[in-house]
């Protein structure tokens, strides 16, 4: 086992897959000589050269279109968004091209592209750099959406995503890059369509993902001291949602709390609630509760920013209400 930061785990995953397959390449703003805004591509330019680690102009729609074209021809591009919020400038390419070309070509084209980078609410990055884009992309047919949450799953999921033949949005939370974890030596791959059972429990199912996994586990530590026994599921895959794992958990607990950083209106929790009501309504002994970010642009002011997102004490309070 080797202790590693998340940004190093992502870099190692990329390096390993590039070494194995010369069709894999990286492009984006400052990914080359600078090594990426969060050092996920550090030293890769020196190892692989200009043709496989491409510094692009600040023109997201252009280099996204180039990457999709490269994928059609058989290459396997990894696009780094310096900040995932900037990818709204390439929304047309991601939706009308990456998401749909396999279908509209009658299956003649595959689009094996990974679109990855930092996102989420950070430390006073302002509204335009703190967007929660999972709800934006969730409605696009043809895309897979992944949200890593630990260095261990970041590496295994990114390696699997690079090998997948579908377009994948790969979210990395900006506040998790310096998270440390012990990673096994050598290759490992994690499934892209399965949630992770983080903690088994009997009284309540808490479903979460990305940075909120860590807020939930802090809350669970406090709840456990008072004798509560919640079960925790990290979604990992935001599209498709592993609804079966949630259903299996509800057969034991019969109560559901969803904790997300996404906005409440049209968020991931809203989709989970709809699917649970369709498939597992009879398992519920209480109304589903969701804790989501405020439906406002993320403020720059630090105290106001904190007021928009969910923290452990709110999770503790909601869990106690549901279990009581």
TrEMBL record:
The reaction(s) this protein catalyses: N(6)-[(R)-lipoyl]-L-lysyl-[protein] + pyruvate + H(+) = N(6)-[(R)-S(8)-acetyldihydrolipoyl]-L-lysyl-[protein] + CO2
Keyword entries, A-Z: Metal-binding, Oxidoreductase, Plastid, Potassium, Pyruvate, Thiamine pyrophosphate
InterPro entries: THDP-binding, Transketo_C/PFOR_II, Transketolase-like_Pyr-bd, Transketolase_C
Pfam families: Transket_pyr (PF02779), Transketolase_C (PF02780)
Domain of life: Eukaryota
Sequence intervals crossing the membrane: none
Subunit and partners: Heterodimer of an alpha and a beta chain.
Record protein name field: Pyruvate dehydrogenase E1 component subunit beta
Protein species of origin: Ceramothamnion japonicum (Red alga)
Biological classification of the source: Eukaryota, Rhodophyta, Florideophyceae, Rhodymeniophycidae, Ceramiales
């Amino acid at each position: 086992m080797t202790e590693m930061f998340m940004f190093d785990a992502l870099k190692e995953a990329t390096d390993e897959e590039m070494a194995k397959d010369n069709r894999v390449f990286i492009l984006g703003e400052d990914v080359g000589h600078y090594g990426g805004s969060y050092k996920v591509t550090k030293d890769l330019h020196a190892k692989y050269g200009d043709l496989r680690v491409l510094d692009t102009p600040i023109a997201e729609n252009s280099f996204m279109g180039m990457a999709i074209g490269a994928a059609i021809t058989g290459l396997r591009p990894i696009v780094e968004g310096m900040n995932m919020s900037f990818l709204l400038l390439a929304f047309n390419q991601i939706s009308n091209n990456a998401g749909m070309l396999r279908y509209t070509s009658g299956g003649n084209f595959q689009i094996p592209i990974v679109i990855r980078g930092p996102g989420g609410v950070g430390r006073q990055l302002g509204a335009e750099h703190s967007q929660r884009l999972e709800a934006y992309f969730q409605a696009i047919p043809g895309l897979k959406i992944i949200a890593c949450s630990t260095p261990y799953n970041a590496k295994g999921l990114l390696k699997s995503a690079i090998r997948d033949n579908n377009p994948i949005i790969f979210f990395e939370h900006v506040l998790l890059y310096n998270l440390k974890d012990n990673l096994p030596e050598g290759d490992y791959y994690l499934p892209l369509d399965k949630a992770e059972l983080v903690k088994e429990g009997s009284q309540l199912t808490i479903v979460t993902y990305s940075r909120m996994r860590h807020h939930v586990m802090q809350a669970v530590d406090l709840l456990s001291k008072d004798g509560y026994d919640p079960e925790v599921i990290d979604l990992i895959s935001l599209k498709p949602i592993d609804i079966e794992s949630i259903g299996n958990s509800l057969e034991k607990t019969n109560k559901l709390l969803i904790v997300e950083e996404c906005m409440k209106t049209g968020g991931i929790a809203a989709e989970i609630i709809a699917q649970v009501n369709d498939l597992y309504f009879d398992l519920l002994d209480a109304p589903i509760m969701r804790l989501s970010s405020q439906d406002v642009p993320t403020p720059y002011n630090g105290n106001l920013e904190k007021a928009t997102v969910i923290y452990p004490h709110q999770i503790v309070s909601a869990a106690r209400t549901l279990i009581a």
